[in-house]
Design goal:
The structure holds 2 protein chains of 2 kinds.
Chain A (H helix, E strand, L loop, with lengths): L7 H14 L4 H23 L2 H17 L7 H24 L18 H15 L3 H12 L4 H8 L3 H20 L9
Chain B lengths: L7 H9 L9 H9 L1 H21 L7 H62 L3 H44 L1
The chains are: A mainly alpha, B mainly alpha.
Amino acid sequence: MRDAVLTDMERLGALDDAEQTFQMNEDAFRLFYDSTARPLWLYLARLTRDDRLADDLLQESYYRFLRAAAAFDDDEHRKNYLFRIATNLVHDHRRQVRSGGVPAEPGDPVDTRVESAEGVARRLDLARAMDQLKPRERALLWLAYAQGWSHAEIAASLGVRTASMKALLHRARRRLAALLRAPRPSGGRS
Amino acid sequence: MTAECPREAEVVSAVLLRRWPQEVDEDLRAHAGTCEVCGEVAVVASLLHEDHEAARAEVRVPAAGQVWWRAAVRARLEAAQAAGRPITWVHGLATASTLGLAIAVAGIVWPSLRESIGWATGAVAGLDPSTRALLRLLADVVQRSLPLALAIAACLVLAPLALYFVLADDRKN
């Protein structure tokens, strides 16, 4: 079978069709994107430890979000839905890596270009400790303490019950605190 | 079991508002120094928020218009592929039907063809030697020109197909 390809004219036509195909128009999308893209990219980058993968998953998340046939109450609902898509994409990618379908790439190191030595050490320690957490624990902690989301928002984005959030967050926090207290493999911080 | 502290939310809020630890009440700071839960929350939340703030300044995401455009093109492409799928099915079905029909026709025609060949062989045997030599010559000519005839037939079938693919590639570029 031959692959379907688009001419330049068809590509231009795609922009006209998009208004009908997607669940929001371009202006509304721009507003929504500007308020969510950076937090979403950071979330993906922290979950995957891979900036390039975060770029790809960002595009994919917005594509699936735009194609979704869901009805949204407000922007909060939209944001939770978008993060839910992103979380599922990360899980899918991890499953593919485990099953050998996608090669695992080494995580990008923390970008430390303009930080103090102390700040760099703290962030590297955090990155090392976060790497040892389960993906869901990482997501929980990041959304709760880095992005400051409420339990209800996190529950909606991760697909867990709000009632379970306190216990899950507590457990994840305890694990991270214990990992941060543990000495570094190469000498370690006091 | 979940250890909880009613002041946990205050600590988180102070960290997220960048007020921790300098700009919070002495009372809250002292509490976090003695409460295991709040002390842990302060450490973990401070580190994660600091990491978030440092990373946020460096994040480079594509422009909204670019993401929209890529999504629009992909949606169009997927629609084109979806539209092409039934045609492919129809093509497959038509090919299978034609093949089946050809086999069925061959099955029906084969007995009468064999009968005709038998009759022709008998008729040729009954002819005089000069006519038989002429027929043998004709058969020889046909046999020699068979590859050429097959090649011409193949060209007649393949040329439109090749033309179709070349024009389709031009359209793609």
